[in-house]
Amino acid sequence: xxxxxxxxxxxxxxxxxxxxxxxxxxxxxxxxxxxxxxxxxxxxxxxxxxxxxxxxxxxxxxxxxxxxxxxxxxxxxxxxxxxxxxxxxxxxxxxxxxxxxxxxxxxxxxxxxxxxxxxxxxxxxxxxxxxxxxxxxxxxxxxxxxxxxxxxxxxxxxxxxxxxxxxxxxxxxxxxxxxxxxxxxxxxxxxxxxxxxxxxxxxxxxxxxxxxxxxxxxxxxxxxxxxxxxxxxxxxxxxxxxxxxxxxxxxxxxxxxxxxxxxxxxxxxxxxxxxxxxxxxxxxxxxxxxxxxxxxxxxxxxxxxxxxxxxxxxxxxxxxxxxxxxxxxxxxxxxxxxxxxxxxxxxxxxxxxxxxxxxxxxxxxxxxxxxxxxxxxxxxxxxxxxxxxxxxxxxxxxxxxxxxxxxxxxxxxxxxxxxxxxxxxxxxxxxx
Amino acid sequence: xxxxxxxxxxxxxxxxxxxxxxxxxxxxxxxxxxxxxxxxxxxxxxxxxxxxxxxxxxxxxxxxxxxxxxxxxxxxxxxxxxxxxxxxxxxxxxxxxxxxxxxxxxxxxxxxxxxxxxxxxxxxxxxxxxxxxxxxxxxxxxxxxxxxxxxxxxxxxxxxxxxxxxxxxxxxxxxxxxxxxxxxxxxxxxxxxxxxxxxxxxxxxxxxxxxxxxxxxxxxxxxxxxxxxxxxxxxxxxxxxxxxxxxxxxxxxxxxxxxxxxxxxxxxxxxxxxxxxxxxxxxxxxxxxxxxxxxxxxxxxxxx
Lengths: 432, 304
Hints:
A: 432 residues; MetI-like fold; extended; B: 304 residues; alpha/beta; Rossmann fold; globular; disordered N terminus
């Protein structure tokens, strides 16, 4: 045994080691700070690009036109038959109105240019108005009709710049003059884009909306929630509280953990094989999407629920058993209420993952171009992330800002769901 | 493990068991001690008399294994009606394991394997047709750490009677809850806040709440696993008074690390050492005139 250290020597050595300890601590803090800042930086970049690209989609150019509901065009025979009214050439009314404004467009080419200023969706607006109120026939109305997407881009000043640094303008000089004249006359205006929130998909960017995709996602998540949560919680309770310890349970446990890591597209293939090919469920239906996402979410829910059950202190179980509660009563009266916040959090995080999932949905046909807003879990639909994918893939340039806007909507939903998870956890969490 | 090596030679340390004239505690039924030959037959390793005249719990040759570990070794012991038996011994000697066998709380431990004859009123506790729920309703338990449910004070006490269907209406349930709180000496402190969470009480109050919860089911035996180890001396004194009162009605087996507590509350004391029951006897004898060397070393504070 060496000589014991003198107090002075001890102090010196502690001092030396102290300096080293503080240095490591400082360094570690620095690493941590840098990683956090890096993360925040990327987040800021993500949000600025998406919001910068997407905010324009919430406003949309409209052209004010005097539309004369000419009975000779809409209903030449005066039958007022809804079928005749529905199939009439409403585009003609728009064209007539435009020609009155700009009579100088006489040849076919410039007329085509002129007509291209207003979206083909204008005709649908008029058709809807007439069908709702046939008394409009013969009257003249001042109406705001959606402008074409290229006009919209030009007015917003967001025409993309090509590789040579020149704006890739697809409007002719004549059209640009007309746009200027419309603006000067107060006939061209930016208004809130309600179509984006209420419409289904469309090939025309100015007519495309996310409501169809949102409803599709909603039905899908509803199916997922009502299947994955009860199944997952029941499986977790059984495995954790009732299953006898055996190799079979171990095998199941390992496989659940493996399933949680299986790429989601594999679940899509499984869903295609089982739900569509074997059970004959309809393609593109949110029901099938929900079933596939249930398969995908289930392992996550089970793992989170088991962790929540495990974290309930054993003293609560002993207390319950000690007064003579049966296993079932112990679980449902005492363990489950305490584990519920953790289970809910796990379920919501699983749902949030399901909401953002697109790969398995491609496999079961939810990537189809569907204009109709779905009315139920069996009608064909698409989902928000798939809609984003479809728009990002579209050739029309105005879809760029709509893609970003759809991402914003999706992120908003995710944010709401995660906030709900936090709120539920705080709401139900009890101290013991 | 010098002491343990001697364990096999304890026979020569034995003295014939004495019949106590008076026993600690006032209102104690006379303890009839069987002859040493009987104890020799049923518990050859144990000094003193393991039997009780009016036994509600009778254990013969109880063994517990936790996997490879032999936690309890050939224990024979009776718990009599209206008797408080204190189980003492150093940590890890099997006291808690023993009382947890009596209401089958060891069932929850995967690796625990219990063998031997455990009887409650003559009925085999570990028989196939014995209902665990019924058993635990008859043999209540108070744990080391106060563990009220994260529910209201009322719900804590009402839970047991409710799941067992002891009350047919709300008024009866109120009576049971009120009566249990009263017997646990808690009613004056909590009667105005029965709706508040039980976890908001102080440690001593929580433990008394747990006792109230146990006696609300009206058990025949109460097992207490170091009920005062987490409490201060004042709360401890209250619990001890309570044990004294409860012994009028229930058989109580209490595990304790405090020899003073064992001396204060119990009629009989059992000394456990490394999974063996070394000595059983009237409390005052164990503390004043122990027969076994190990018991003597422990109660005089030479180890433990």
